[in-house]
TrEMBL record, chain A:
It comes from the Bacteria. The electron transfer flavoprotein serves as a specific electron acceptor for other dehydrogenases. It transfers the electrons to the main respiratory chain via ETF-ubiquinone oxidoreductase (ETF dehydrogenase). Its cofactor is FAD. Residues 26-219 form the Electron transfer flavoprotein alpha/beta-subunit N-terminal domain. This is Electron transfer flavoprotein subunit beta. Pfam families: ETF. The lineage of its organism: Bacteria, Bacillati, Actinomycetota, Actinomycetes, Micrococcales. CDD domains: ETF_beta. InterPro entries: ETF_a/b_N, ETF_b, ETF_beta_N, Rossmann-like_a/b/a_fold. Belongs to the ETF beta-subunit/FixA family. Heterodimer of an alpha and a beta subunit.
TrEMBL record, chain B:
This is Electron transfer flavoprotein subunit alpha/FixB family protein. It comes from Sinomonas terrae. SUPFAM superfamilies: Adenine nucleotide alpha hydrolases-like, DHS-like NAD/FAD-binding domain. Its cofactor is FAD. Coiled coil: none annotated. The lineage of its organism: Bacteria, Bacillati, Actinomycetota, Actinomycetes, Micrococcales. It comes from the Bacteria.
């Protein structure tokens, strides 16, 4: 096989979207019940497949999981290691709390420079909490790298990455030379689950921890102090309540249309 | 009032589309507007831009940005912003719009707010987060604000006072193409003739309960002039293309009416529909969580209920 790859996968520890999620009185997200963001598993799977096709870790390929966040965010890294990442990097600092995309991409760009010699940065199409999809584009801008985003397929041919990107009206083939930033959709693959062997192996894998000072950043540049956006108000939408429920007795289709007519919807 | 630069992607040959006119209207909420248009506009389009309040039209001259993914567009828009000195930049909320917004934010040290559903004159942006479960208002704290705005955030309408815009070419900065990703092939995706899912006033969506037969869903959608949607279970089963998926990892829709058929309504499925004004649910299982949020629910077989409703709508319209 050809050259080896050093791939960094961005992973985020987010509140589980299977449960109700809440914004606290300080207008930041309550992060209990958090897990590895489901959409990041597709990026990790894509990285593992690229690595394995080149002989995996034994042949010198690396899949490094990178996260920033509270000490708890290490749980997202541990899950990534159990699934198959070779090592983890955790940027953690109290001053990171309430970072927006601008501040997040500043910190992650510094961490990626610190890791160094990266061929590919892989991310999910969005985090399932903020859902802005801004960070991969902002990282590409900060690092001066090409961006290949919303990939529904990804191949590396020599030193060129080729993706398919399905937009609203067209499907595009897009390519760029490595190193590059790639984000992937949930259509790219079927993520694997951690198995027993993976869970045991993960205990021996290393997680490096960086503070902001380690990355040459200061507290004023990140978190709520460095964010360039501010949430003024956050209100839960009023809970929807059940309306009329009927059981079909042969005429429910007519009654449905009566309801729509009463609502002036037909 | 903040002078605002509105970014417009390629303008269709027949003139500005409704989403582009809505963007101009959204920009006018913040103050006087200028427009950055990635392709050379015809005289008729320049006149139309003027009718919608655009005071200056910026173009990239002869440069063709269409073969590249967002990086040169962002570099050019940053160059336009340094000439126009706006207090805010407004873009559409497509993949490209958000990504250009993100890169522009880095270049201008500007805060970016995406998924904006409404703007106020003081720069307050409204959006829904956590899959429609919270409504948030947010502000940008940097001198320049960047907003990616969803369709329908402002009503397309001519400006109270028309302008006669000056057209100014701003060069694409040198090196903007060097590290950009190249689009090497482009194929049109099949079109259904139905309204776009994210913009439709009515959505009829099917799930596991269709058993792969979307016929009744499509027939009802066509009778109502609605878009077709699908739950993840239905797209994962390969019954319908992923483009139709509504929900956490698909599209969040905010139509007037959402008709859910054969969808149980687990939290991730509710997420895509809960900002709809009216929800109708048809499901054979009376215990389905979807009935907890439905304004009108039918416990029944969608293969009987939907065709009957479709026929009744056609009969009343005849």
């Amino acid at each position: 096989m050809g050259d080896t790859l050093k791939i960094v996968v961005l992973v985020k520890h987010v509140p589980d979207a299977q449960f109700d999620r809440h914004i606290g009185p300080d207008r930041t997200l309550e992060r209990s019940e958090s897990i590895l963001s489901e959409l990041d598993e597709y990026a990790l799977e894509a990285a593992l497949q690229l690595s394995e096709a080149r002989g995996g870790e034994k042949a010198g390929n690396q899949v490094i999981a990178l996260t920033m966040g509270t000490p708890d965010a290490a749980n997202a890294l541990k899950k990534a290691l159990q699934i198959g990442a070779s090592s983890g990097v955790h940027v953690t600092d109290e001053a990171l709390a309430a970072s927006d995309a601008w501040a997040t991409s500043l910190v992650l760009a510094a961490a990626l420079r610190e890791i160094g010699d990266i061929d590919l940065v892989l991310a999910g199409m969005a985090s399932t909490d903020g859902e802005t999809s801004l960070v991969p584009a902002q990282l590409a801008e900060r690092l001066g790298l090409p961006q290949l985003t919303f990939a529904s397929s990804l191949e590396i041919e020599g030193r060129t990455a080729v993706i398919r990107r399905d937009g609203g009206t067209t499907s595009d083939t897009v390519e760029a030379d490595l190193p590059a930033v790639v984000s992937v959709t949930d259509q790219i693959n079927e993520p694997r689950y951690p198995n027993f062997k993976g869970i045991l192996a993960a205990k021996k894998k290393k997680i490096a921890t960086f503070s902001l000072a380690d990355l040459g950043l200061d507290a004023g540049q990140t978190g709520s102090a460095g964010a360039l956006t501010r949430v003024e108000q956050a209100e839960p939408r009023p809970a929807r309540t059940a309306g009329t429920i009927i059981t079909d007795e042969g005429d429910a289709g007519m009654k449905l249309v009566d309801f729509l007519a009463a609502q002036k919807l037909v | 009032m903040t002078s605002t630069l509105v970014y417009l992607d390629v303008i269709p040959a027949e003139g500005l589309g409704k989403p582009q006119l809505e963007l101009l209207a959204a920009g006018r909420i913040l103050g006087p507007i200028s427009a950055a248009v990635v392709t050379q506009p015809s005289d008729a389009v320049v006149r139309e831009l003027g009718e919608h309040g655009v005071e200056t039209v910026y173009t990239p001259g002869d440069a063709d940005l269409s073969g590249y993914l967002v990086a040169p567009q962002a570099a050019w828009l940053a160059a336009v912003a340094s000439a126009a000195q706006p207090g805010a930049v407004v873009l559409d909320n497509s993949f490209e719009g958000k990504e250009i917004a993100g890169r522009l934010g880095v270049r201008l040290d500007a805060g970016v707010i995406t998924d904006v559903v409404a703007l106020e004159g003081d720069g307050t942006a409204h959006k829904t987060v956590l899959a429609g479960s919270y409504e948030v208002s947010a502000k940008v704290t940097s001198p320049v604000a960047v907003f990616a705005v969803k369709p329908g955030a402002a009503e397309a309408a001519p400006a109270p006072v028309a302008a006669s815009p000056a057209v100014k070419a701003i060069e694409v900065p040198e090196g903007a193409f060097a590290r950009a990703a190249r689009i090497t092939a482009r194929t049109d995706r099949p079109r259904s003739g139905r309204p776009e899912l994210t913009e439709a006033a009515i959505v009829v969506a099917g799930g596991r309960g269709t058993d792969g037969d979307f016929g009744p869903i499509e027939d009802l959608a066509d009778a109502l002039g609605a878009a077709v949607g699908a739950s993840r279970a239905a797209t994962d089963a390969g019954w319908i293309s992923h483009d139709f998926q509504v929900g956490q990892t698909g599209k969040t829709v905010s139509p007037q009416l959402y008709i859910s058929a054969g969808i149980s309504g687990a939290i991730q499925q509710k997420a895509g529909m809960q900002t709809a004004k009216v929800i109708v649910a048809v499901n054979s299982d009376p215990e389905s969580p979807v009935f907890e949020i439905a304004d009108f629910g039918v416990v029944g077989d969608l293969f009987k209920v939907l065709p009957q409703a479709t026929e009744e709508i056609k009969r009343r319209r005849a």
